[in-house]
Amino acid sequence: MARGFPVFVLLASGAVLGAALAAQYWGGLLPCELCLYERWPWEAAIVIAVAATMAGSRPALPWVAALLALVFAAGSALAFYHVGVEEHWFAGPAACTAPATAATTVAALEAQLLHQQPVRCDQPAWSLFGVSLAGWNLLASLVMLGACLAVLARALRLAHAPPFRGAAPADPKVRR
After folding, report:
1. What's the pLDDT tens digit per position in 104-123?
2. C-alpha distances in angstroms, 34 versus 17, 77, 162?
3. Which CATH number does the domain housing residue 135 bear?
4. Which of the residues 20, 45, 62, 116 has the least number of beta carbons within 10 Å of its own beta carbon?
5. Domain presence at residue 40
């Protein structure tokens, strides 16, 4: 396999996951439940890219690109859902969104607060140019999905192209 594509996926996925971990451990941004789910496709892409790089079989390139496209499509869907939760387009998981309190006593309110996640999914903890981390993850996932689909299309086109045999011999009967 052309190792360039899996190495690119490995480096890009490592950079995105590394940035998320750096923001968590060095930047102090605690991830919400959806943020943790959004890391899974990047982790899966790293595993697939490492395996594809080690295998090194060119005929497997369309399969690797298709599998990675599915991974990044799932990542895009998760990121879109998270952006929708932040923008209040969708209801988020009950464990990490702010429910309307139905507590009628102080003890019930205390129990509700103690069982709620410390980081809420419906409030962005950080943004750059008005785009939250979930939004940047959506953009990165869509870019990687597009790259995977482009590599898949090119690999399939090359697989079905006739082999190149050089220039056709000149026909002595044809005058130029």
Report:
1. 777 776 776 666 657 777 77
2. 14, 12, 47
3. 1.20.1550
4. 116
5. yes
